[in-house]
Amino acid sequence: MLTDIVSPDKILLHQSVSDWQQAITVAAKPLLDSKYIYPEYITAMIDAVKNYGPYIVIAKGVALAHARSEDGVKSMGLSIMTTKDPINFGNPENDPVKIIFCLAAPDPTTHLDVMRSLVNVINENWKIEQLSKIDNIEQFISILNKFEQNA
């Protein structure tokens, strides 16, 4: 499921970012460039973390950046970014973040299959470690697909 909706142009590897706000902005850029989201969706994702805390850090080393569909989603999309250096979001249990998944869901239910697939990929820390070290997009997709199929 993840590899069905994530094309190579939606994957950014080893990006240098200075803080969590820039991390969200950079991770969302492929969705913005492909017109899956409006610019205000990025602002809404950042504002949600400012208002509600780092709830988007959903597992050790993993953030799932998202906001409400009415905040600027045009169509279903997912982008993935790994960081050159891990970033702290303020979640003492799961920081620092090495991989950011940026989800754009056009309604409250369309993304549920994507979420199930994502849980299968991030359910073990060694998978995140392996994905975060890959520096080739085709290899990243191949390993992501393998993790998804073996779940």
UniProtKB/TrEMBL annotation:
Keyword terms, alphabetized: Cytoplasm, Kinase, Phosphoprotein, Phosphotransferase system, Sugar transport, Transferase, Transport
Chief place where the protein resides: cytoplasm
Subcellular location: Cytoplasm
An example Gene Ontology molecular-function term: kinase activity
Listed Pfam families: PTS_EIIA_2 (PF00359)
Transferase as UniProt keyword: yes
Residue intervals of the PTS EIIA type-2 domain: 4-147
TM stretches of this protein: none
InterPro entries per record: Ascorbate-PTS_EIIA_comp, PTrfase/Anion_transptr, PTS_EIIA_type-2_dom
Keyword Transmembrane helix in annotation: no
Record-level GO cellular component terms: cytoplasm
Biological-process GO terms, alphabetical: phosphoenolpyruvate-dependent sugar phosphotransferase system
PANTHER family: ASCORBATE-SPECIFIC PTS SYSTEM EIIA COMPONENT
Chain's role: The phosphoenolpyruvate-dependent sugar phosphotransferase system (sugar PTS), a major carbohydrate active transport system, catalyzes the phosphorylation of incoming sugar substrates concomitantly with their translocation across the cell membrane. The enzyme II UlaABC PTS system is involved in ascorbate transport.
Entry protein name: Ascorbate-specific PTS system EIIA component
